[in-house]
Every structure is written in structure tokens, then in C-alpha cells.
Amino acid sequence: MTATSRAHSFNAAAAQYAANRPSYPSALFDAVEELAGRPLAGARVADVGAGTGIATALLRERGADVIAVEPGAGMAAQFRRTLPDVPIVRGDGNALPLAEASRDLITYAQSWHWTDTDRSVPEALRVLRPGGALAVWWNTTAYDVPWIAAQAERVAAHSDVGSTPQVRPDDSRAAQLAGLSDLRVSRRHVRWSRVVSLDTHLANLTSHSAFLVLGEAGTQAFLADERGRLRELFPDEKVEETYVVDLLVAARP
User: Fold this and answer.
1) N or C: which end of the chain has fewer CB atoms below 10 A?
2) Rounded mean pLDDT of 44-61?
């Protein structure tokens, strides 16, 4: 299964994605403002790989003037239902449909890894005004929470995608992995959690590409076992999900 097919798998599950995926804490946007060196209020922002608009809506709540960029038809349709008054254009980070030096900030929430950084980094620099910034972030697994780490191992084994290293790379390595080594990069970790129903937790889990490409049979087999395990841990069927947002902000020279 290619990265492209995994990326496009979200389009068939856009409603599931919108209903169950976690959002982002207010502290993340405080950190974006601090590291970018300007407030979001009044900033001209492009939210790329916007998906169903989870991050876009929060950027707008902070007063940003946001345009969304999304390559997937299903995700874009869900975005328009959720945020009908926010402009969205079809496109991706490798060839942004935006004018040169037109944005103060470009954001990628959970989507930077789907780009070819040999192309997406120059594109971001082209679209950013001098002094602007590129902010990329991910809700990552809190491996210090035992049940979450164990579940991550089960997901990796079932979906055959390989385990993710449980030790986070240092700042230099993180910038390198993100293709940002040639830029001045700042990093911040923001820990947060949410309490959701067991059904929401499982729907969130299976909205990830590793399950979407498995098909219904492979997904349901995992869910049946996982529901039983989690009921033992959470008999009230209220699950506390813990995340560590990994944020990188790169300044345009």
C-alpha cells in the first residue's frame, strides 16, 4: 500500500474523521504565536491538508484570516458542510494554489508527512511573506501511558505498518525528519487529554489510514478484541486519551 493510497483513504471516511478525531488544545496555538513571533489575530493563514477543518476552525476562533487547502474531494466536501463560510481550495502542499508572499503563516495539522518535502518546503517559502512562518504539528502517542503504548503495539501488529519508535527524536533529528534542517526551527511539546466514550475512541482509532486501507473485515476483527480489552480497563466505557502535540515552527528567512 503506497503513501498516496493511504492519504486518499480518508476521503471515504470523512464523516467518521470529523466526528471522532481529537482536536487541539488552546496551549498549542499559544505556542504557535510565541514561536512564530506574532498573534494569530489578523494573520493571513493557509491551513494546508485541512481535512474536515478541525484546525482551521480553531485558527479562525483565534482571529486568523484563514484559507484552507485540501486535496481530497471527500474531505473537502465535509469541510464545506462544517465550515461553509471559510474559503477552501483544492490543492496540496507540493504545489500550493496560492500567490507568492501572500501568507503570514502556513499550517499543517497532521498532514505534513503526506508531502514531498523537496517540493513542499520551497512551496511554503514561496507563499510566505518575509518574516512569515511554517508551523507543522501532530497529535502523537503518549507512550508513557501503559495502556496507550500497549494499544499502539497491537495496532502496529494488526495493520502491519511497523511499530513507531517510543523514544522521541531530539530537536535536530525532528527537524531533519521533517525536511526542515536548512531553516531556523523551534520545537514545542504540548501535552493534553480528552475523555470520550469507548465508541468514540474506537471510531477515532479506525479513522486512521492503517485501518482504512485494511477494509471492513480486517477492521472489525481488531475492534471486537479491542473493545473487550478496553471494557476491562474502563468499565464505565469512558476512555481518557492522552496526546503529546509535537510542534515545529520554521521561520522564513
Assistant:
1) C
2) 97
Q: Are 63 and 40 in contact (CB under 8 A)?
A: yes
pTM recorded for the entire structure: 0.90
Per DSSP, helices labelled H in the chain are: 3-8, 14-20, 26-36, 54-61, 73-82, 117-127, 146-159, 171-177, 198-205, 209-212, 216-233
For residue 87, CA distances in Å to 68, 127, 145, 190 come to: 6, 17, 39, 29
Strand, helix or coil for residue 17: helix
Asked if the model's pLDDT at residue 214 lies above 70, the reply is: no
Apex CA 52: angle with CA 166 and CA 179, to 5°? 45
Cα(74)–Cα(76) distance, integer angstroms: 5
Task: Using pLDDT thresholds of 50, 70 and 90, give the confidence band for residue 4.
Answer: very low
